[in-house]
């Protein structure tokens, strides 16, 4: 189904961490419901204004009953600065949902590890909620530079939460991958810095455990038409916005 394009009322938009914002908008129930791991193109400025392109942001939480959709995003440049300036009652242009998300069709098995790095934890909250509702045992492994954010939101859905920080102020002092043993799980889903995801994927491949990776890329169209977000795979170039952003790890990585 093609992505919808509509102006959504902003319900809330506040700080969730250092340079991290949580935006909640009204979901238009006449449009498709987003799946875990899908994203929207967000825009809070006129077409003739800079920046030229909308910003791709993954769905953090979706509530069909309340008709609310939330996005957790890091303020990095002009586009996200304009998103951060939105206040309740303003409107934000949403185009989506787009892309392929995480599999939530019951095939992941009975125990799943979610591994997130920084803002990469954003798409994992909706995934945790949906897997928990299916009776899956979900454990979160989250890594941050210094101060964790939005970790408490995972508590209701996760059996356990494991934190690592570069600074050592919270949780394990070191890499979040130090805490992960893929052999304990039937599947692993990860999102975050590329170097972290590659390590997670290769750990899983060595252990014979299925792994799903959510890639991030700069996007122009968001629908696979411009090929601006192409990345390498074992089978050649793939479009992150159309073929992904979620890929099975075995498609992207090979063991050394």
From TrEMBL:
Binding sites annotated in the UniProt record for FAD: 55-58, 79-80
Domain FAD-binding FR-type: 3-104
UniProt: [2Fe-2S] cluster binding residues: 221, 226, 229, 241
Alphabetized Pfam families for the sequence: DHODB_Fe-S_bind
Entry protein name: Dihydroorotate dehydrogenase B (NAD(+)), electron transfer subunit
Free-text function comment from the UniProt entry: Responsible for channeling the electrons from the oxidation of dihydroorotate from the FMN redox center in the PyrD type B subunit to the ultimate electron acceptor NAD(+).
This protein's UniProt keywords: 2Fe-2S, Electron transport, FAD, Flavoprotein, Iron, Iron-sulfur, Metal-binding, Pyrimidine biosynthesis, Transport
Recorded GO MF terms: 2 iron, 2 sulfur cluster binding; electron transfer activity; flavin adenine dinucleotide binding; metal ion binding; oxidoreductase activity
GO biological process: 'de novo' UMP biosynthetic process
Family named by the database record: Belongs to the PyrK family.
């Amino acid at each position: 189904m093609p992505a919808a394009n509509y102006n959504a009322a902003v319900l809330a938009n506040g700080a969730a961490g250092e340079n991290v914002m949580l935006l909640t908008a009204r979901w238009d129930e006449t449009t498709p419901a987003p799946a875990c791991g899908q994203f929207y193109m967000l825009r809070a400025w006129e077409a003739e204004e800079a920046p030229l392109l909308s910003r791709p942001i993954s769905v953090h939480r979706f509530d069909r009953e309340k008709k609310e959709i939330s996005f957790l995003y890091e303020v990095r440049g002009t586009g996200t600065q304009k998103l951060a300036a939105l206040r309740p009652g303003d409107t934000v242009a949403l185009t989506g949902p787009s892309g392929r998300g995480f599999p939530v069709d019951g095939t992941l098995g009975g125990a799943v590890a979610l591994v997130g790095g920084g803002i990469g934890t954003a798409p994992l909250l909706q995934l945790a909620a949906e897997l928990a509702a299916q009776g899956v045992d979900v454990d979160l492994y989250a890594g941050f530079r210094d101060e964790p954010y939005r970790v408490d939101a995972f508590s209701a859905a996760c059996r356990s939460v494991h934190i690592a920080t570069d600074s050592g102020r919270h949780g394990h002092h070191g890499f979040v991958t130090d805490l992960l043993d893929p052999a304990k799980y039937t599947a692993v889903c990860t999102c975050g810095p590329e170097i972290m995801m590659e390590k997670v994927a290769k750990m899983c491949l060595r252990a014979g455990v299925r792994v799903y990776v959510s890639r991030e890329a700069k996007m122009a169209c968001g629908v696979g038409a411009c090929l601006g977000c192409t990345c390498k795979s074992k089978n050649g170039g793939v479009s992150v916005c159309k073929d992904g952003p979620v890929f099975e790890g075995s498609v992207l990585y090979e063991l050394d």
